[in-house]
Amino acid sequence: MGYLIIFLISMIPIVELRGAIPVAVGMHLNMVWAYVICIIGNMLPVPFIFFFARKVLEWGKDKKYIGKFFTFCIEKGEKGGQKLQAKAGRGLFVALMLFVGIPLPGTGAWTGTLAASFLDMDFKKSVIAVMCGVVIAGVIMGLASMGVFGGISALLAPKQ
């Protein structure tokens, strides 16, 4: 059941693998399996985001109830794409990988894939860059989570 929970958490936008890995550590799951499951869960939406998110957002931007949110998403994707393009120049692959890989708010597979879609990047290259970034983010979050939760549990554990 725990693995299903982290799988589902890793597919949620904004939270993604960055939230699922600490949950896995807190649940004391096997980190190798948790890591693999979180990567799969985080990567599963990527092709759908790349091919369909932009079209759905463009369709919904002028709708009454969802228009403001869809417009926000379009602007975020365009802004992310422009920042990547400006900083990367010809090194767009590496920039996308690092954008996704550094676990900061507003970065991740969802935003990175949407930005790649707005930049009309090659699908295969963008998926590989996002995958590499997700792997990097998973390692960073795993190490940080084990250190943080390990330290907390050491403080709270009864002394023997």
List keywords for this structure.
160 residues; mainly alpha; 0% strand; 78% helix
List the SSEs and their pairings.
Blueprint: H1 2-10, H2 16-26, H3 31-43, H4 46-60, H5 67-88, H6 92-101, H7 109-118, H8 123-156
Helix pairs in contact: 1-2, 1-3, 2-3, 2-8, 3-8, 4-5, 4-7, 5-6, 5-7, 6-7, 6-8, 7-8
Q: What does this protein structure show overall?
A:
With 160 residues, the chain is mostly helical. The protein has one domain (2-156). The protein is built from eight helices and no strands. The protein has helices at 2-10, 16-26, 31-43, 46-60, 67-88, 92-101, 109-118, 123-156. The protein starts with a helix and ends with a helix.
Total strands: the figure is 0
User: What profile does the largest beta sheet have?
Assistant: none
SS class:
mainly alpha
N-C termini distance? 32 Å
Please state the CA-atom Rg, rounded to the nearest Å.
17 Å
SSE series: HHHHHHHH
Q: What is the 3D shape?
A: globular
Instruction: Round the mean pLDDT to the nearest integer and report it.
Output: 87
Number of domains: 1
Low-confidence stretches: none
Number of helices: 8
Strand content: under 5%
